[in-house]
């Protein structure tokens, strides 16, 4: 037992931390969700604007988190910030939602996305290939592949920080390079006729139907509320595609000079991804008509664009890119997520057996329990719905965390702040107001996305008082 590490090793530099941010953000969303956005807003201007608004919100939040990460450079990130700014219950509710749905659900969804796109190259991995029928549940090759991917990456990350870091940095650099190549070739393949036709829609807000119909949202009474609902609904996809940027805060205990490098990595990582996302959508508008974007087969806009850019082989090129992208994305989610479980266990609000590091100075038990739960979500077939539910919950906790900056400045003004939130108080307040407006709009116009997620959070209250509170 004397050889058992009791603290994390600081092994991540600025580049590694930035790759955690960018790699955890870039998964499969950028290749899919532009279809839903285009159906909801119906114009080139609003398609680009939705991605730009999402990017600005993400950058604002990331810059604000820099202050909190410098104040509390410990493993657990957002869980620690909420606990310190408010109380243990608030921190627990985030950790509860994070473990049950947000992180494990993301790992499951990205794993299945990896399997689905792998099936382009290896058809045997298709979700149509049923490998086991147990009566009460059927298991497809895609589900089995996603579970094996999660198990493999979990095992690699139990071997130590170095192994997980090499995969994360290497795969993220590879997919950024591949995306930049896609954007470059897309610029050469762009058709001016298609581009001009798409931009004739300008910034008019309208909804598109598969039958060819278009509803102009400014053409009837109550248009303002309808427009707000369309914009908020559109942003569910773009916000999810830009989420997980905060994963780097969960590994603060393993980052060199965390008081400086976490804030810098948050800014650099979110900026890189925002620029890539906007540029990718401009490429879509250059090679595909709005209707081709909105109604791409199975919403695979990236595949449709790649076929236009590279011809028939484009399907295989984009499939390979997505395999690299989702592989690296899942590694970042798995690596960072277990640190929250570990920190909660150390605080006595999660299974105490998880509050230990293995001989490689990583939370091995937390990694494996995360692996088991994510694998079960792969089998449930409901992970997609869970992810839709939690984007509202994710925004709520982002709002609370950034509000924590204001609270901590008032209640604990003497705490050292090596870095202060950029644009305080204007930009953090602007984020809180903007995200709150989106949340209210989602509550009203997208109840299926919001109320179930809110119930998951509230369920954590009796769990906290009945199970964990009595142990403190």
TrEMBL record:
The keyword Metal-binding does not apply. Keywords: Membrane, Transmembrane, Transmembrane helix. InterPro entries: AA/rel_permease1, AminoAcid_Transporter. One of its GO terms (cellular component) is membrane. It is a multi-pass membrane protein. It holds the Pfam family AA_permease_2. It comes from the Bacteria. This is Amino acid permease. It comes from Chitinophaga pinensis.
């Amino acid at each position: 037992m004397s050889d058992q590490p009791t603290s994390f090793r600081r092994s991540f530099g600025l580049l590694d931390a930035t790759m955690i941010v960018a790699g955890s953000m870039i998964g499969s969303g950028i290749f899919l969700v532009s279809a839903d956005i285009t159906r909801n807003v119906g114009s080139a201007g609003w398609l680009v604007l939705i991605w730009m608004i999402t990017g600005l919100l993400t950058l604002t939040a990331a810059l604000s988190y820099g202050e909190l990460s410098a104040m509390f450079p410990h493993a657990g990130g957002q869980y620690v910030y909420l606990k310190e700014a408010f109380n243990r219950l608030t921190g627990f509710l985030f950790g509860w939602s994070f473990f049950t749905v947000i992180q494990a659900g993301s790992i499951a969804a990205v794993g299945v996305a990896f399997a689905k796109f792998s099936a382009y190259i290896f058809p045997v991995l298709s979700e149509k290939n049923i490998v086991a029928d147990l009566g009460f549940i059927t298991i497809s090759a895609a589900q089995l592949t996603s579970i094996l991917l999660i198990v493999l990456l979990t095992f690699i990350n139990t071997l130590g920080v170095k192994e997980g870091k090499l995969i994360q940095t290497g795969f993220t650099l590879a997919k950024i390079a591949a995306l930049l190549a896609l954007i470059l070739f897309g610029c050469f393949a762009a058709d001016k006729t298609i581009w001009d036709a798409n931009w004739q829609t300008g910034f008019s807000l309208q909804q598109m139907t598969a039958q060819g119909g278009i509803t102009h949202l400014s053409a009837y009474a109550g248009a303002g509320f309808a427009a707000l609902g369309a914009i908020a609904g559109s942003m569910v996809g773009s916000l999810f595609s830009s989420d997980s940027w905060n994963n780097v805060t969960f590994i603060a205990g393993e980052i060199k000079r965390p008081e400086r490098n976490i804030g810098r990595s948050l800014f650099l990582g979110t900026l890189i991804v925002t620029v890539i996302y906007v540029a990718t959508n401009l490429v879509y508008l250059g090679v595909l008509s709005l209707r081709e974007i909105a109604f791409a087969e199975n919403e695979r806009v990236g595949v449709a664009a790649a076929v236009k850019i590279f011809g028939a082989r484009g399907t295989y090129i984009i499939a390979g890119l997505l395999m690299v992208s989702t592989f690296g994305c899942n590694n970042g989610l798995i690596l960072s997520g277990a640190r929250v479980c570990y920190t909660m266990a150390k605080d006595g609000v999660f299974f105490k057996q998880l509050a230990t590091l293995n001989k490689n100075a990583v939370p091995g038990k937390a990694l494996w329990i995360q692996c088991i739960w994510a694998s079960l979500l792969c089998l449930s077939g409901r992970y997609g719905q869970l992810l839709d539910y939690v984007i509202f919950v994710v925004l709520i906790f982002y709002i609370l965390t950034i509000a924590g900056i204001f609270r901590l400045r008032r209640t604990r003004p003497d705490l050292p702040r090596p870095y202060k939130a950029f644009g305080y108080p204007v930009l953090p307040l602007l984020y809180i107001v903007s995200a709150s407006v989106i949340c209210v709009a989602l509550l009203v116009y997208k109840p299926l996305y919001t109320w179930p997620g809110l119930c998951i959070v509230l369920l954590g209250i009796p769990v906290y008082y009945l199970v964990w509170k009595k142990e403190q």
